[in-house]
# Entry
Amino acid sequence: MSSLVSVIIPVYNRAHLIEETLLSVLHQTYENWECIVVDDWSTDNIKELIASDVFRDSRFKFYERPFNKRKGANSCRNYGVEKSIGDFLLFLDSDDILKNNCLRTRLDVFVKFPFLDFAIFSMGLIKDNKMENYKYPDLTNANREELISLFITGPLPWNMTRPLWKISFFLNQIGFNEELDMFDDDEFNLRVIYSSEIRFKFIDNTDCYYRLYDDNLSKYKNSIFLEKLFRSHLLFLKTINQKFDLDDKIKFKKELQQNVYGIMEGYLRLKNVDKRIFKYNIIYFFSNFKASFSFKFFIFFKYILSSYSEEKKGSYKINKFLDSKIKQIINKC
# Structure
């Protein structure tokens, strides 16, 4: 197969990490690729890095996000697609790594199964500079409803780097939601699974790696990051509301309640987050999705309680009581 693969990388202030990512593309055993790097107006030395002798290869193409597009990785990805000329698309994050045979083994799958719209491959982890495989749940026989459930509740069936997309299929989708700062994998793939007659396959072959490092984990304690997370979560709920009819809202009632409770439980207790922002998510959920009166009552009470420190007398015990009640309600769905 001599198909051209377009590897699209959005980047913002990752000059200290992206070199290894780009080298993993450069060292591919399959050579018919283009690598489109779209910079989100970084303030580091990314331009100098891309212009260095190491990457002076015509297959590397560097662009800056147009000013008329909203800042963010999704805008960069969509712009990269506009600039691409490949037959297949691979979206690579600026800190992830490809195995040197990644493109070749992925294309081999399409030789064997030419009817596929996309294929999903396994992804390992890089921890303390060591690459290790990760055991994923077997979703080979998962149906549409099971995948939708996972994109609502997690863990995600797949993330950004794991699929290889046929460009002809991808261009029939709306593209990435440029209003989102997070939940981009969730929102885009849920739309794909929900709206399309799709043909895809899981391949149990680890050919890429996700990097774990302190900066990547500490961001979850950053107040600006958390505000973006809450805002993106609201937009994610709006996408679900637009797609789901009443029957779907009833069918996925448990998952939707788990989603809202999970965000509250995971992030609303943190001290440096403005809890008032999340009230819009709660109001929108109550107004547009199916939930019992008792679930709404305990969720609202938990939201009010989140404004009080857990060190306050009785706060911890009340929170534990609310958690047990909410979980009981969800489990009964």
Summary: The chain has two domains: 5-212, 220-331. The radius of gyration is 21 Å. The longest helix spans residues 223-243.
